Every structure is written in C-alpha cells, then in structure tokens.
Amino acid sequence: MKIGHKKKLVATTDYKLLAFTLFTVSFFSFFTVRPSLKIIATLYKERQEYERVNQVLETKITQVIQAQTNYMQALAKKKLLDETVPPDSQLEDTAHLLNSVSDLSTVNIDRVIIHPKQQVGLATIAINISGAGNFDQLIEFINTTYQSTRLFYLKEIALEKAEGTSSAAIKFNSNIETYYYLE
C-alpha cells in the first residue's frame, strides 16, 4: 500500500511545480516583459519625433546660414549704401559734391540753395540750382550729378532762353532732391 501512495504524492508535486512555474512565468511576464514592450513602443515613438524635430532643425539651420550669407553680402555693400543715402544730412558734403559736379561740367552755376528737413526716417533735402549754359553742357551737368555716389532725383527743370547771348545759350532753374536716413 505504501507504493501506491508514493505515486499519488509525486503526481501532486508535479502539479504544484507546474503551477508554480506558470505563476512565476506569468508574474515575470506581467512585471518585466510588458513594461519592456511599453518602453520599446515609447522609444520608437520618441525616435520618430526626434527625427522629425531634427529635420525641422536642419531646415532652420539652413535658413539661418542663408540669412547670415545674405547679411554678409549686404554688409559689404553697406558703405556704398551709406554714401548713397547717408545716415545724416551732411549738408556741407552735399554742397561740396554739387560744387565739384559743377566744376566737372562746363555749365555756369549761379545759385545753389539747400533746404534740409529734419525728420526721422528717410528724409529729403530739396536743392534749387540755377545756372546757364548750352544744352550739351546742361545734359553733361545732369549726367555728372546722377553719376555721383550720392542719390539725386531731378524733380523738375525749367528752361528759358538766355538774354543777350548766343542763340544756343539757355538758363535753367532746377529742383533736385537728395536723401538721408535719420534714425
């Protein structure tokens, strides 16, 4: 009788061992494998998000580099721009420039009147110039004025025949504007 009893006892132990093994496997599956799978899924999503962020950053970096290149190109031309539209009125320099332009041309300048305006931003300086000469001399004066580094705009010019001189002589009265930028 003892022999049958041993077989029954061994079979019960095998089920206990199987139940304990299944419980241990399910316990570790629930507390180790499941969180590991969650971490893997989260890391995969973060990786995709970081790749998208990296693409956005690369385009922004490219735009910043392009803006820096454009700024450096504009900075090289800043001196020319400051000569064209200076940061202050520079009335003496404007008068000197107009005198040198009239010296370069053969037109006779009778009068130069400069009317500055003080305002913030792009400001204009109105200039009235009166003189006499023939048509070719007047064209030469206007071209020389436009070829200077300072920006000039011939707003209007009035021509009339000069009295008591040859028929080719004309008198002119012109209104010219130049600009400066006051911050």
Molecular structure report:
The protein starts with a helix and ends with a strand. The longest helix has 75 residues. The mean pLDDT is 80. Strands 1-2-4-3 form a four-stranded antiparallel β-sheet. The protein folds into two domains: 76 residues; 99 residues, Ribosomal protein S6/Translation elongation factor EF1B (Alpha-Beta Plaits, 2-Layer Sandwich). It is rod-shaped, with a radius of gyration of 45 Å. The protein contains four helices and four strands, in the order H-H-H-E-E-H-E-E. It has 183 residues and is α+β, with helices and mostly antiparallel strands. A hairpin with a 7-residue loop joins strand 3 and strand 4.
**DSSP summary: helix tally:** 4
Q: What is the highest CATH level, the class of the largest domain?
A: Alpha Beta
- CATH fold descriptor of the largest domain: Alpha-Beta Plaits
The helix content, as a percent range, equals 55-70%
SSE order and pairing:
Layout: H1 2-76, H2 78-84, H3 91-104, E1 108-116, E2 121-134, H4 135-146, E3 152-161, E4 169-182
Antiparallel strand pairs: 1-2, 2-4, 3-4
List keywords for this structure.
2 domains; 4 helices; four-stranded antiparallel β-sheet; 183 residues; Alpha-Beta Plaits
Structure, briefly:
The longest helix is centred in the first third of the chain and has 75 residues, at 2-76. It is built from 4 helices and 4 strands, in the order H-H-H-E-E-H-E-E. The chain has helices spanning 2-76, 78-84, 91-104, 135-146, and strands at 108-116, 121-134, 152-161, 169-182.
